[in-house]
Each structure stands twice: as structure tokens, then as C-alpha cells.
Amino acid sequence: MFVGALELDVLLGDVRSLKEKRSAVRPVIAELRRRFEVSAAEAGHLDLHRRALIGVAAVAPDAKHVRDLLDACERLVAGRPELDLLSARRRLLGPDDE
């Protein structure tokens, strides 16, 4: 079993409140969950209205499948016109990791 985690640090465009931020981030998280069957949540920068940290996690029987899933999730977020992807960090844990 392999577990992958992806942290996506994004900058939102013309957002002036936390309420507007949530309405911009929530559909992205829902689409990640629906299209790729991964766990996704807003995981950081909760008090900043123009920044969001989106966390994505995936489990699969092989490392290639996890990498492919995380790559697809990153591409989806990077392709959203209302978001600017500032950075993406990933971790992969396998059977040999403790």
C-alpha cells in the first residue's frame, strides 16, 4: 500500500473576504474529490482571505498510481483561472517507510 499527500499553496484572485474565499475554494475541493476519488480539504492559511492551502491525500496499491493521481490533482488546480498555484509539495509513503 502506498499513501501520497499533496499540499497546494494557492493565491486567490479578486477575493475580499473569508466568505468569498470559501466560495472559491469549496468547489475546487469538491471537484478534486469527485473526479479523482481522493481526500481533499482546505488545510491551511485559514485566516488569510487571499491564500489557501489545499491538502490532498490518496491511497493505492502501487506508487505509480499515487503519483499519477497527485499529478492530475495538481494539474486541475493549476488550470483553474481563479487560482494561482504558488507551490506544490508532495510526500509518498510506502511499505518500507516507518
Q: Give the helix/strand class.
A: alpha+beta
CA radius of gyration: 14 Å
Strand order of the largest sheet: 2-3-1-4
Largest sheet entry: 4 strands, antiparallel
Q: In sequence order, what are the helices and strands, one letter per element? A: EHEEHE
Mean pLDDT: 93
Keywords:
about 100 residues; alpha+beta; single chain; 4-stranded antiparallel β-sheet
Describe this structure in words.
With 98 residues, this protein is of the alpha+beta class. Strands 2-3-1-4 form a 4-stranded antiparallel beta sheet, covered by helices on one side. A hairpin with a 6-residue loop joins strand 2 and strand 3. The longest helix is centred in the first third of the chain and has 19 residues. It is elongated.
Quick structural summary:
By secondary structure, the chain is an alpha+beta fold. The chain has helices spanning 18-36, 63-78, and strands at 2-12, 39-44, 51-60, 83-93. The protein has a 4-stranded antiparallel β-sheet with strand order 2-3-1-4, with helices on one face.
Secondary structure: elements and pairs:
Elements: E1 2-12, H1 18-36, E2 39-44, E3 51-60, H2 63-78, E4 83-93
Antiparallel strand pairs: 1-3, 1-4, 2-3
